[in-house]
Amino acid sequence: MTTHRYRSHTCAQLRKSDVGNSVRLSGWVHRVRDHGGLLFIDLRDHYGLTQIVADPDSPAFKVAETVRGEWVIRVDGEVKARLPETVNANLPTGEIEIFAREIEVLSAAKELPLPVFGEPEYPEDIRLKYRFLDLRRETLHRNIVARTKIIAEMRKRMGEVGFTEFSTPILTASSPEGARDFLVPSRIHPGTFYALPQAPQQYKQLIMVSGFDRYFQIAPCFRDEDPRADRLPGEFYQLDLEMSFVEQDDVLSTMEPVLRGVFETFANGKPVTQKFRRIPYDEAMRTYGSDKPDLRNPIEMQAVSDHFRDSGFKVFANILANDAKAEVWAIPAKTGGSRAFCDRMNSWAQGEGQPGLGYIFWRKEGEKLEGAGPIAKNIGEERTEAIRQQLGLADGDAAFFVAGDPKKFVTFAGAARTRAGEELNLVDRERFELCWIVDFPFFEWNEDEKKIDFAHNPFSCL
């Protein structure tokens, strides 16, 4: 037995080879189970879980009866092998258990405001108020550890390709990046303020003109903006880098193996793209409705304007006739060919503030494959068949349509593509599909202010 006050091992270390050894563990009581007088305690620490057993003959049994979830205890006991039928293959320690000789309560816990075991959904205000409990949950604990490991992997791989990490100041002058600054008042100069950096733009460029060649940083960025689905409000971290004397291809070819390698390390066996596609911005927007498309979704949008021009579907025909910029795009949806699904998509579109989402779905009537729905009735059999053939659809498939100026509907079209792919389970979540989006537009016309604006970050070559 170790003479250490709290433990000889962590709660993830013990294996079958340790059977017969006397050990000491300390940790949190994850849960307690009473099996007819035989008490089982799952003991948890940062590293994992170990099962503790106390029977009525054990001197530790009286204390074991009192412990509750999230109490902190120290356990002395003997490592024993579990019976074959009780082995837990999901735990690294699942082949053993500790028969307790002594249990010391290090810290008793009152009734919990939210449970740690089981991880049920709880209101966010309670989770944030009791964050020290919330962070004990397995999912959050695992995510935080994974984040640390991913950053360490990034640092390692960036060093391997010749980058040097530099830390840049947090208190700085304003360097607008498209959001409002967070300001910090200066004590020394009353009435003046520092800005927290939206990105380390000025300092990293100072590093480059000073001749350091390859810089990177896991950079904290502070932006006073509304929260996004993929970004916390207020602050976030990004892999920030600069390279000297390079062209676009140098940046992409240098970073591609770094990103691929990081993904492969943490992909849990899922395949990762070996050669990143380079997709021009315009193509990405026309095909996927997004400049960050999920390529695991096989749906690719296509222009089908010619099939609706001068057609019997007057809504689209009039749009095309009266606006030279107007187009009709189709969102093909394999396996979506039921009226129920098409109606759900239409209702979703209305919930997004759209008048609706036109559709055609194809089904066999006897030996004949026919298009169904109001659009098919209005444009006729020949045009409906031409659309089906262009999109490569078959019996049981559907297509949805949006019309107007693509600049105005492209975001909605992309959202509809995503919605259809997810609803129909077409997205292959068992792989990672990465790409580069290139040839971003540099400028665009601001119709509201009647001036030319930057369409993309002017400090990036991508």
Work out the radius of gyration: 30 Å
Fraction of residues in helix: 25-40%
The major pleated sheet works out as: 5 strands, mixed, barrel
- Pick out the low-confidence regions: none
> Helix/strand-derived class?
alpha+beta
Q: What coarse outline follows from CA principal-axis ratios?
A: globular
Mean pLDDT: 93
Q: How large is the count of helical segments?
A: 13
Q: Separation of termini?
A: 60 Å
Number of strands: 19
* Portion in beta strands: 25-35%
Main sheet: strand order: 1-2-3-5-4
Structure commentary:
Helices cover 29% and strands 26% of the residues. It contains 13 helices and 19 strands. The strands form 6 sheets. A 5-stranded mixed beta barrel has the order 1-2-3-5-4. It has a 5-stranded antiparallel beta sheet with strand order 12-13-16-14-15, sandwiched between helices. The model has no long low-confidence stretch (mean pLDDT 93).
